[in-house]
Structures are given as C-alpha cells and as structure tokens.
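Shipment paperwork, digital attachment
Item: protein structure file
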Amino acid sequence: MIIGDLYGRGTPVFSFEFFPPKTEAAADDLLTTAAELKQLHAPDFISVTYGAGGSTRARTLDLVSRIQKSLKIPTMAHLACLGHTRAEIADIVAGLVSDGIVNILALRGDVPREGLSSNGEFHYASELIEFLRERFDVGLGAACYPEMHPQATNPDDDLRWALRKTELGARFLITQLFFDNNDYFAFVSRARAAGVGTPIVPGIMPITNVAQIERFTKMCGARIPQALYARLDRHREDGAAVMAIGLEHAITQCRELLDRGAPGLHFYTLNKSLSTRVILSAIKS
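Attachment content:
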C-alpha cells in the first residue's frame, strides 16, 4: 500500500507517529499502544521517527517492520539524510524495501549534539527525495512548516522548498505541529497559490504537560495562542486539568480542520494512546 494513494478517496486519513523506544520492554508496550489505537478502526497508517544523524536507525527499522507485520497496518519510516552518504541511504532503503516497507517520509533531519560526520553527502530533504525517486519504487512524503522552519530565512523561501519537494516526488506533506488553525489554513492558501497541489496534512500534538509543550514549541518554532497558554499556565501543576484543557483544544481544532477540508490528521502521539483515542472518539462521533 502506497500511502499517497490513501488521500483523495473522499474520507479523512488518520495517521499516528511514534518514536523508537530505547528498550525491548518499551517496544512491546508501544506495540500494545498501537494495537489499542487500531481498535478505533484507525490508523490508516503509522509512522516511526528517525533520530538525528541516524542515532535510532536500527530501532526505527526494527519497529516499522514489527508494526507492519504484527498489526497489518501500513507503516512509514522516517528517513533523515543529514550526515549520511548516498551509499548509506541506498543501503537503508534497500533493507526497508526488502522487508516490505515501501513508504518513506523524506527529511533533512536535525544536527546531532555531537555534530555531523564529515562524510555526509546530503544537505536538504529535496536532495533525498530526488535520490530516492531515481533509484527506488517507494511512496514518498515530506514535511512542511505552517509557521516557517526555524532556520528558514523568510516564509516565501520556506514555501519554495515545500514546492520543490512535491515537484521532485513527495506525494503529500505533513505539517509541523501547530495550535492555531489560522496558521494552517493561511499556509495551505499560500501553498496552493505557489503551485503546491499535493495533500497538506495537519500535524496534531495533544497537550498533556505544560513544561513539555513549552520545550517542543521552543525547538520547532511553533507558538501556543495566548489565551490557550494562559489557561494552561494557570493549571500547570494540575495534570488532570492540563490534560482536559489540551484535549478540549485538540478536539475543537481537529473538528474545524476536517470541517474545512483538511485531508486527514496526523497525530504526534508521544507513544501514548489515551489522548489520541479520546480525540478520535470525539470527532468520529
């Protein structure tokens, strides 16, 4: 199943993102989480992240294979090219394809804390997409940034990179997390005007912990709307209240996105099922 074929069927596509656990026991727990989410007749696919500089390479490849084989859910491997040689990327993707994984989210990736190796041959996700399209029969997706990539010089330059990814073969784009739907719809409008015709899938992260979401938004350049942040900050020491506020916001956000034509929802699950299950149950009802 090529994931790009799922979009355009007339029904929303729901997908969940996981990161590779550090232990075998945690990996087993993650499979249980994925199985719980499957009971909601979702997801349409699952993706698994890839650490900076390939730091989780083995665990990512193992997890995508286990999920797809054990749960019979189409699975997409994130692949970050920064720091890799062309030979390394070709070897990774050949291994994925031989194991039945034919969907890849092509990313530049973050710079590891210890820095990059000097032999890296890729600098941008667009280079990775072009390389893969020329050599492998795989389905490709890519990332985009409604509030602009933190390292982009300006919004127009950032949008040109998104367009380039689709021109080279990305069948869909998944957005960075955001909390104000106006940012998403404004980005989609600009992208369509610039010539981007592929589905632009909103990335949703339910807020469950104030300090955690502060760290995430600082790293990725996303913002929390002032009124929402004020509510969260007042209750930051009350975990149940924070979760309730986060769920309320996410449910409202997801309903509006779908009502206004978003092609689906991509949930950043943080390897937990409760928040995503609550949101999906609410919007499906």
